[in-house]
Design brief:
283 residues; mainly alpha; MetI-like fold; 15 helices; 0% strand
Length: 283
């Protein structure tokens, strides 16, 4: 029986509202700044209500029609680069992890556990640790300022491999035997049984990996020097150059707001699957 305590209920709601305000206020300020002119933003105090330049600022940011002291690359192009990179990274990580976990769990080959632990040990070697040799390889292969250079070094995931391996180990052996008796080969069993059973885990990992790929900063900062290949996170950094008075902060803030939209949409549209993949009792 759940005991009702009005005081604690009210207190919890107050704390929740305060948390929402603390998180949402910077986003609101960013939105307000994106609706004013650059001159109005640097005035003291800055306006706290939306202005009348919303459509103009967002159109100028998307098309790159107003160039400031920093980069003036169209934000639409930046968002396309970020979208392609995030999708390739997330889908590639899931595909590689599914196949590697499938091989580790269901196939017998020499040094199987050695290979698994070799994959697992790479958790201690993120891109930041191996960034110089990785950059050298990418540069030698001519993949600077390319989608391949942005995505391939980030496409493997030891975490996803480990999670899928743990899930596959919970699949009853009876399913394997039934599939074998029905004449299903390994890839048929993988496609028709394991992948559907893993759908909630795949959805949860897709959300996490999409946001991971969209928010990449350090690696794209190194491998992109051409404005046409800037992801939107790098584009925001490149737009800021010089003193505060020289910046078109209205366009920078509009770009920041646009950069929030795709990850937010992915989380909202896949929220049900994401939560189910994290808390499903079968996993």
């Amino acid at each position: 029986m759940v005991e009702r305590r009005p005081l604690f209920t009210a207190l919890s709601h107050v704390v929740l509202l305060l948390g929402v305000l603390i998180v949402a206020f910077p986003v609101y300020i960013t939105f307000v700044a994106s609706t004013h002119t650059a001159v109005e933003i640097v005035q003291a105090p800055m306006p706290l209500l939306p202005g009348d330049q919303l459509l103009h600022n967002y159109a100028a940011a998307l098309t790159g029609s107003e160039r400031g002291p920093g980069s003036g690359a169209p934000v639409a192009r930046m968002m396309w680069v970020s979208l392609v990179s995030a999708l390739v990274i997330s889908i590639g990580k899931i595909a590689i992890s599914l196949l590697s976990a499938f091989a580790i769990v269901y196939f017998r080959f020499p040094f199987k556990m050695l290979f698994f632990w070799s994959i697992f040990v790479t958790l201690m070697l993120p891109v930041e640790v191996r960034i110089f040799p990785t950059y050298q390889v990418v540069a030698d292969l001519g993949m600077l300022n390319t989608y391949a250079g942005l995505t391939i070094p980030l496409i493997a995931s030891a975490t996803a491999t480990f999670l899928f391996r743990q899930f596959f180990m919970t699949v009853p052996d009876e399913l394997v035997e039934a599939a074998r008796m029905d004449g299903a080969g390994p890839m048929r069993f993988f496609k028709d049984v394991l992948v559907p059973l893993s759908s909630t885990s795949i959805a949860a990992l897709f959300v996490i990996q999409f946001i991971y790929g969209w928010n990449q900063y350090l690696w794209p900062l190194l491998v992109t020097t051409n404005e046409d290949m800037y992801p939107v996170v790098i584009g925001i950094k490149r737009m800021i150059s010089g003193g505060d008075s020289a910046q078109q902060w209205n366009l920078v803030m509009a770009t920041a707001m646009l950069a929030m939209v795709p990850p937010a949409l992915v989380v909202m549209l896949m929220q049900k699957w994401f939560v189910k993949g994290l808390v499903d009792t079968e996993k």
